[in-house]
Amino acid sequence: MLKPNFSSFMTRCSMLSWNTVEKKKFASDNLRSLSLRIKSVKSIQKITKAMKMVAASKFKGDQRRLEKCSNFSTPLIDVFNRLNKLDIHKKNEELAIIAISSDKGLCGSVNSSVSRLCKKLLENEQVNNELVDNITPNKIYLYGIGEKIRSALSRLHKDKFQVIYNEYNKIPINFLTCSYIAERIMNNNHSNIIIIYNHFKSAISFDTQILSVFSQKPLNKINKKELSILNSNQK
C-alpha cells in the first residue's frame, strides 16, 4: 500500500494555486488593456468627427468660391482655346510651366498627376497634347504653386525652378493673390506659357488638364485680320 507523500501533495496544491493566480492576473491585464484601447479608439473617433466637420466646412466654402469664379474663368479659358487655333506659339523657344499643387499631402493622385505631367515635359517626353508636343522648347522654366510640386521635382529638376509660391491657401484664395502671382510670371515675357492643374469635377473626381496662356510676346504676332476670321468662325 502506497503511503501518501505530504510534500508532493503540497507542491501540487501550490502549483495549482499559482496557476490560478497567474490566470486571474493575465485576465485582469487583458481587461485593463482592452479598456484603455476602447478609450483610445473613442478619443480618435471624436477627433476624426471634428476634423470631418472642419473639412466639410472648408470644402463648401472653396466650392462656393469656385462656382462664383467660374463665371469669369470659363469665358477666359474659351478665349485662350480660340487663340490657340491661330498657331501663335513660338516653336523651339522657351517654355514656362506653371504647376499648381497643394501644400500638404492629399488622397489619391491629386498632386502626383500634376508632377507626373511636369516631369514628362521637363524630360522632353510626349504628353498626348498636340499643342504642347509641337512646341519643342529649347529651355524650360518651372513655376511651382504649392509645396508638393517642389518635393516631387526638386531632386532631379531643382535648376528648372524659378520660384515656389507656398502657403498661398492659408487664407481663402482671392483676386489679389492671383494677380500678384500672375504679374510676377508675366513680367518675364516668356514665349510660351502653360498651366498644369486639376480641374474640379466632384468631391471625389478631377481631371488633370493643360491650359495654354499667353504673354505679350506671342500676342503681338496676332493681327486684326486673324482675329476677325477667328470671330467669324465662332458665329
Distinctive features:
235 residues, alpha/beta, Pyruvate Kinase, Chain: A, domain 1, 56% helix
Secondary structure blueprint with pairings:
Layout: H1 6-84, E1 95-100, H2 112-122, H3 130-133, E2 140-145, H4 147-157, E3 161-165, H5 175-186, E4 192-202, E5 205-213, H6 216-219, H7 224-234
Helix pairs in contact: 2-4
Describe this structure in words.
- The chain has 235 residues and is an alpha/beta fold.
- It has a domain at 85-234: Pyruvate Kinase, Chain: A, domain 1, CATH 3.40.1380.10.
- The chain is 56% helix and 16% strand.
- It has 7 helices and 5 strands, in the order αβααβαβαββαα.
- It has helices spanning 6-84, 112-122, 130-133, 147-157, 175-186, 216-219, 224-234, and strands at residues 95-100, 140-145, 161-165, 192-202, 205-213.
- A 5-stranded mixed β-sheet has the order 3-2-1-4-5, with helices on both faces.
- β4 and β5 form a beta hairpin.
- α2 (112-122) packs parallel to α4 (147-157).
- The protein is elongated.
- The N and C termini lie far apart (120 Å).
- The mean pLDDT is 78.
- It holds the Pfam family ATP-synt.
- This is ATP synthase subunit gamma.
pLDDT below 50 for ≥5 consecutive residues: which ranges?
none
How are helices and strands ordered from N to C?
HEHHEHEHEEHH
Number of helices: 7
CATH classification, class level of the domain at 85-234: Alpha Beta
User: Span between N and C termini?
Assistant: 120 Å
Q: Which CATH-level-2 architecture of the domain at 85-234?
A: 3-Layer(aba) Sandwich
* Number of strand elements: 5
Helical content band: 55-70%
